[in-house]
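Batch 3, record 17
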Amino acid sequence: TVGAVALDQHGNVAAATSTGGIEGKLRGRVGDSCIFGGGALANNEVCAASCTGDGEIIMLASLAHEVYALRKYRKLSITKATRAAIEMYADKLQGDRGIIALDPAGNLAIDSNTNVMRCAYRVDEDAPFVTVWKAE
Amino acid sequence: MGKYVIIIHGGAVNTDPGTIPPEKEEQLKKGLHNALTAGWEILQRGGTALDAVEAAVMSLEDNELFNAGRGAMFNLNGEVETEASIIDGLTLRGGAVSGLKLVKNPVRLARLVMEKCKHTFLTAEGAQEFALAQGLTLQDPSYFKTEEQRQEWLDIIQEARAEHANKHD
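Prediction for the assembled complex:
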Protein backbone atom coordinates (compact mmCIF):
# COMPACT_ATOMS: atom_id res chain seq x y z
CA THR A 1 0.00 0.00 0.00
CA VAL A 2 1.11 3.55 -0.68
CA GLY A 3 -0.23 6.89 0.43
CA ALA A 4 0.37 10.57 0.92
CA VAL A 5 -0.88 13.49 2.99
CA ALA A 6 -0.04 17.11 2.35
CA LEU A 7 -0.54 20.66 3.56
CA ASP A 8 -0.28 23.38 0.92
CA GLN A 9 0.68 27.03 1.24
CA HIS A 10 -2.98 28.03 1.29
CA GLY A 11 -3.61 25.98 4.45
CA ASN A 12 -5.48 23.13 2.77
CA VAL A 13 -4.84 19.45 3.48
CA ALA A 14 -5.47 16.34 1.37
CA ALA A 15 -4.94 12.60 1.60
CA ALA A 16 -4.68 9.73 -0.89
CA THR A 17 -4.13 6.00 -0.53
CA SER A 18 -3.69 3.29 -3.17
CA THR A 19 -3.04 -0.43 -3.01
CA GLY A 20 -2.92 -3.80 -4.67
CA GLY A 21 -4.25 -5.45 -1.53
CA ILE A 22 -2.88 -8.65 -0.06
CA GLU A 23 -1.25 -11.58 -1.82
CA GLY A 24 -3.62 -14.48 -2.41
CA LYS A 25 -6.76 -12.50 -1.55
CA LEU A 26 -10.10 -13.74 -2.76
CA ARG A 27 -11.38 -12.23 -5.98
CA GLY A 28 -13.50 -9.17 -5.20
CA ARG A 29 -11.94 -8.52 -1.79
CA VAL A 30 -12.00 -4.85 -0.88
CA GLY A 31 -9.40 -3.39 1.46
CA ASP A 32 -9.19 -0.21 3.50
CA SER A 33 -7.41 1.99 0.97
CA CYS A 34 -10.61 2.94 -0.81
CA ILE A 35 -12.64 3.31 2.40
CA PHE A 36 -13.08 6.87 3.67
CA GLY A 37 -12.22 6.92 7.36
CA GLY A 38 -10.45 3.59 7.04
CA GLY A 39 -7.43 4.05 4.80
CA ALA A 40 -7.67 7.80 4.32
CA LEU A 41 -9.31 10.95 5.62
CA ALA A 42 -8.75 14.69 5.28
CA ASN A 43 -10.43 17.69 6.85
CA ASN A 44 -8.98 21.20 6.89
CA GLU A 45 -10.25 21.79 10.43
CA VAL A 46 -8.66 18.70 11.97
CA CYS A 47 -6.07 16.65 10.10
CA ALA A 48 -5.21 14.43 7.15
CA ALA A 49 -4.26 10.76 7.51
CA SER A 50 -3.34 7.84 5.28
CA CYS A 51 -3.01 4.27 6.58
CA THR A 52 -1.29 1.05 5.64
CA GLY A 53 -1.14 -2.46 7.05
CA ASP A 54 -3.75 -5.20 7.44
CA GLY A 55 -6.79 -3.87 5.61
CA GLU A 56 -9.36 -5.92 7.49
CA ILE A 57 -8.39 -4.50 10.88
CA ILE A 58 -7.88 -0.99 9.54
CA MET A 59 -11.46 -1.02 8.26
CA LEU A 60 -12.85 -2.47 11.49
CA ALA A 61 -10.92 0.04 13.59
CA SER A 62 -11.80 2.94 11.25
CA LEU A 63 -8.19 3.86 11.69
CA ALA A 64 -7.95 7.16 9.80
CA HIS A 65 -11.16 8.32 11.45
CA GLU A 66 -9.75 7.45 14.87
CA VAL A 67 -6.89 9.86 14.30
CA TYR A 68 -9.45 12.49 13.28
CA ALA A 69 -11.72 11.82 16.26
CA LEU A 70 -8.90 11.83 18.81
CA ARG A 71 -7.72 15.15 17.44
CA LYS A 72 -11.14 16.72 17.19
CA TYR A 73 -12.85 15.53 20.36
CA ARG A 74 -10.01 14.75 22.77
CA LYS A 75 -7.81 17.55 21.47
CA LEU A 76 -4.76 15.29 21.30
CA SER A 77 -1.70 16.40 19.37
CA ILE A 78 -1.29 14.76 15.98
CA THR A 79 1.57 12.66 17.39
CA LYS A 80 -0.46 11.40 20.35
CA ALA A 81 -3.59 10.86 18.27
CA THR A 82 -1.66 8.76 15.77
CA ARG A 83 0.00 6.68 18.53
CA ALA A 84 -3.36 6.14 20.25
CA ALA A 85 -4.94 5.01 16.98
CA ILE A 86 -2.10 2.53 16.42
CA GLU A 87 -2.68 1.06 19.89
CA MET A 88 -6.48 1.17 19.90
CA TYR A 89 -8.19 -2.25 20.10
CA ALA A 90 -4.77 -3.87 19.63
CA ASP A 91 -5.89 -6.79 21.81
CA LYS A 92 -8.93 -7.56 19.65
CA LEU A 93 -7.83 -6.35 16.23
CA GLN A 94 -4.34 -7.73 15.79
CA GLY A 95 -2.30 -6.92 12.73
CA ASP A 96 0.08 -4.50 11.10
CA ARG A 97 -0.84 -0.82 11.27
CA GLY A 98 0.96 2.21 9.95
CA ILE A 99 -0.24 5.81 9.76
CA ILE A 100 1.06 9.06 8.34
CA ALA A 101 -0.79 12.17 9.47
CA LEU A 102 -0.52 15.93 9.71
CA ASP A 103 -2.57 18.74 11.23
CA PRO A 104 -3.46 22.09 9.64
CA ALA A 105 -0.50 23.74 11.41
CA GLY A 106 1.89 21.41 9.63
CA ASN A 107 2.77 19.21 12.60
CA LEU A 108 3.36 15.71 11.33
CA ALA A 109 3.26 12.16 12.67
CA ILE A 110 4.56 8.85 11.33
CA ASP A 111 3.89 5.76 13.43
CA SER A 112 3.41 2.01 13.13
CA ASN A 113 3.46 -1.20 15.12
CA THR A 114 5.89 -2.72 12.59
CA ASN A 115 9.63 -2.69 12.14
CA VAL A 116 9.33 -1.62 8.50
CA MET A 117 7.60 1.68 7.73
CA ARG A 118 8.66 2.87 4.31
CA CYS A 119 8.11 6.61 4.41
CA ALA A 120 9.43 10.06 3.63
CA TYR A 121 8.59 13.64 4.42
CA ARG A 122 9.68 17.16 3.61
CA VAL A 123 8.76 20.42 5.33
CA ASP A 124 9.14 23.70 3.42
CA GLU A 125 12.68 23.98 2.01
CA ASP A 126 14.18 21.70 4.66
CA ALA A 127 16.07 18.63 3.52
CA PRO A 128 13.90 15.58 2.79
CA PHE A 129 13.82 12.65 5.21
CA VAL A 130 13.54 9.14 3.75
CA THR A 131 13.55 5.82 5.58
CA VAL A 132 12.56 2.19 5.21
CA TRP A 133 12.90 1.14 8.86
CA LYS A 134 10.70 2.49 11.62
CA ALA A 135 13.57 2.72 14.11
CA GLU A 136 15.68 5.11 11.99
CA MET B 1 1.87 32.07 2.04
CA GLY B 2 2.13 29.46 4.79
CA LYS B 3 4.06 26.37 5.67
CA TYR B 4 3.88 23.40 3.32
CA VAL B 5 4.45 19.76 4.17
CA ILE B 6 4.20 16.40 2.44
CA ILE B 7 4.48 12.93 3.97
CA ILE B 8 4.33 9.71 2.00
CA HIS B 9 4.37 6.01 2.85
CA GLY B 10 5.10 2.88 0.88
CA GLY B 11 3.72 0.29 3.27
CA ALA B 12 4.27 -1.01 6.81
CA VAL B 13 5.07 -4.61 7.68
CA ASN B 14 6.82 -6.75 10.26
CA THR B 15 9.59 -8.64 8.55
CA ASP B 16 12.99 -10.17 9.04
CA PRO B 17 15.53 -7.41 8.24
CA GLY B 18 17.39 -9.97 6.13
CA THR B 19 14.56 -9.94 3.58
CA ILE B 20 15.50 -6.37 2.61
CA PRO B 21 19.13 -6.43 1.43
CA PRO B 22 21.03 -3.11 1.25
CA GLU B 23 20.64 -2.79 -2.52
CA LYS B 24 16.86 -3.22 -2.30
CA GLU B 25 16.74 -0.76 0.59
CA GLU B 26 18.50 1.79 -1.59
CA GLN B 27 16.02 1.20 -4.44
CA LEU B 28 13.11 1.64 -2.04
CA LYS B 29 14.58 4.87 -0.70
CA LYS B 30 15.11 6.16 -4.24
CA GLY B 31 11.49 5.37 -5.10
CA LEU B 32 10.27 7.12 -1.96
CA HIS B 33 12.47 10.12 -2.66
CA ASN B 34 11.19 10.43 -6.23
CA ALA B 35 7.58 10.27 -5.09
CA LEU B 36 8.20 12.78 -2.31
CA THR B 37 9.82 15.16 -4.78
CA ALA B 38 6.93 14.83 -7.24
CA GLY B 39 4.54 16.05 -4.56
CA TRP B 40 6.88 18.54 -2.92
CA GLU B 41 7.60 20.40 -6.16
CA ILE B 42 3.89 21.06 -6.59
CA LEU B 43 3.61 22.45 -3.06
CA GLN B 44 6.76 24.51 -3.45
CA ARG B 45 5.32 26.19 -6.56
CA GLY B 46 2.19 27.10 -4.62
CA GLY B 47 0.11 24.20 -5.95
CA THR B 48 -2.62 22.41 -4.05
CA ALA B 49 -2.30 19.64 -1.49
CA LEU B 50 -4.72 17.63 -3.62
CA ASP B 51 -2.43 17.81 -6.67
CA ALA B 52 0.58 16.98 -4.48
CA VAL B 53 -0.83 13.80 -2.94
CA GLU B 54 -2.07 12.64 -6.33
CA ALA B 55 1.33 13.16 -7.94
CA ALA B 56 3.20 11.43 -5.11
CA VAL B 57 0.89 8.41 -5.12
CA MET B 58 1.01 8.13 -8.93
CA SER B 59 4.79 7.99 -8.72
CA LEU B 60 4.58 5.11 -6.25
CA GLU B 61 1.92 3.37 -8.38
CA ASP B 62 4.31 3.47 -11.33
CA ASN B 63 7.14 1.95 -9.29
CA GLU B 64 6.99 -1.84 -9.23
CA LEU B 65 8.75 -2.00 -5.86
CA PHE B 66 5.56 -0.82 -4.15
CA ASN B 67 2.25 -2.61 -3.76
CA ALA B 68 0.02 -0.37 -5.87
CA GLY B 69 -0.50 -0.03 -9.61
CA ARG B 70 2.41 -1.86 -11.27
CA GLY B 71 3.82 -4.38 -8.79
CA ALA B 72 0.50 -4.94 -7.02
CA MET B 73 -0.18 -8.21 -5.24
CA PHE B 74 -1.96 -11.09 -7.02
CA ASN B 75 -5.32 -12.42 -5.91
CA LEU B 76 -5.90 -16.15 -5.56
CA ASN B 77 -6.77 -16.36 -9.27
CA GLY B 78 -3.45 -14.79 -10.24
CA GLU B 79 -5.04 -11.46 -11.17
CA VAL B 80 -4.26 -7.95 -9.99
CA GLU B 81 -7.13 -5.94 -8.46
CA THR B 82 -6.30 -2.46 -7.27
CA GLU B 83 -8.12 0.24 -5.31
CA ALA B 84 -7.58 3.84 -4.23
CA SER B 85 -9.15 6.89 -2.67
CA ILE B 86 -8.45 10.60 -2.47
CA ILE B 87 -9.94 13.29 -0.22
CA ASP B 88 -9.84 17.08 -0.36
CA GLY B 89 -9.70 18.57 3.14
CA LEU B 90 -10.96 21.93 1.89
CA THR B 91 -14.22 20.80 0.30
CA LEU B 92 -14.55 17.41 2.09
CA ARG B 93 -15.20 15.88 -1.32
CA GLY B 94 -13.67 12.51 -2.12
CA GLY B 95 -13.47 9.81 -4.74
CA ALA B 96 -12.81 6.09 -4.43
CA VAL B 97 -12.41 3.12 -6.75
CA SER B 98 -11.88 -0.62 -6.29
CA GLY B 99 -11.67 -3.88 -8.22
CA LEU B 100 -9.57 -2.34 -11.01
CA LYS B 101 -7.70 -4.66 -13.36
CA LEU B 102 -6.67 -2.33 -16.18
CA VAL B 103 -6.33 1.22 -14.83
CA LYS B 104 -2.68 2.32 -14.74
CA ASN B 105 -3.14 4.91 -11.99
CA PRO B 106 -6.04 4.13 -9.65
CA VAL B 107 -5.56 7.35 -7.66
CA ARG B 108 -6.02 9.38 -10.86
CA LEU B 109 -9.32 7.61 -11.44
CA ALA B 110 -10.34 8.27 -7.82
CA ARG B 111 -9.66 11.98 -8.40
CA LEU B 112 -11.81 11.95 -11.56
CA VAL B 113 -14.62 10.21 -9.69
CA MET B 114 -14.41 12.98 -7.10
CA GLU B 115 -14.48 15.76 -9.68
CA LYS B 116 -16.52 14.44 -12.61
CA CYS B 117 -18.87 11.75 -11.33
CA LYS B 118 -22.17 12.16 -9.49
CA HIS B 119 -21.17 9.22 -7.28
CA THR B 120 -18.34 8.91 -4.76
CA PHE B 121 -17.25 5.29 -5.14
CA LEU B 122 -17.11 3.15 -8.30
CA THR B 123 -16.08 -0.49 -8.50
CA ALA B 124 -14.88 -3.07 -11.02
CA GLU B 125 -16.23 -2.88 -14.60
CA GLY B 126 -18.19 0.29 -13.91
CA ALA B 127 -15.10 2.03 -12.63
CA GLN B 128 -13.13 0.94 -15.68
CA GLU B 129 -15.89 2.09 -18.04
CA PHE B 130 -15.75 5.47 -16.33
CA ALA B 131 -11.96 5.48 -16.72
CA LEU B 132 -12.34 4.82 -20.45
CA ALA B 133 -14.94 7.57 -20.78
CA GLN B 134 -12.54 9.98 -19.09
CA GLY B 135 -9.69 9.02 -21.41
CA LEU B 136 -7.50 7.49 -18.72
CA THR B 137 -4.60 5.23 -19.64
CA LEU B 138 -5.46 1.55 -19.44
CA GLN B 139 -2.87 -1.21 -19.45
CA ASP B 140 -2.84 -4.86 -20.40
CA PRO B 141 -3.09 -7.01 -17.22
CA SER B 142 0.50 -8.14 -17.82
CA TYR B 143 1.74 -4.57 -17.16
CA PHE B 144 0.83 -4.84 -13.48
CA LYS B 145 2.42 -8.24 -12.87
CA THR B 146 6.03 -8.52 -11.77
CA GLU B 147 8.11 -11.66 -11.45
CA GLU B 148 8.58 -11.09 -7.70
CA GLN B 149 4.82 -10.95 -7.06
CA ARG B 150 4.22 -13.92 -9.36
CA GLN B 151 6.70 -15.98 -7.36
CA GLU B 152 5.06 -14.99 -4.07
CA TRP B 153 1.69 -15.95 -5.51
CA LEU B 154 3.04 -19.32 -6.65
CA ASP B 155 4.37 -19.96 -3.14
CA ILE B 156 0.94 -19.22 -1.65
CA ILE B 157 -0.86 -21.44 -4.16
CA GLN B 158 1.53 -24.32 -3.56
CA GLU B 159 1.30 -23.90 0.22
CA ALA B 160 -2.49 -23.90 0.05
CA ARG B 161 -2.46 -27.04 -2.06
CA ALA B 162 -0.09 -28.73 0.38
CA GLU B 163 -2.29 -27.80 3.35
CA HIS B 164 -5.35 -29.09 1.54
CA ALA B 165 -3.56 -32.31 0.65
CA ASN B 166 -2.54 -32.88 4.26
CA LYS B 167 -6.18 -32.91 5.33
CA HIS B 168 -6.75 -36.18 3.47
CA ASP B 169 -5.38 -39.60 4.17
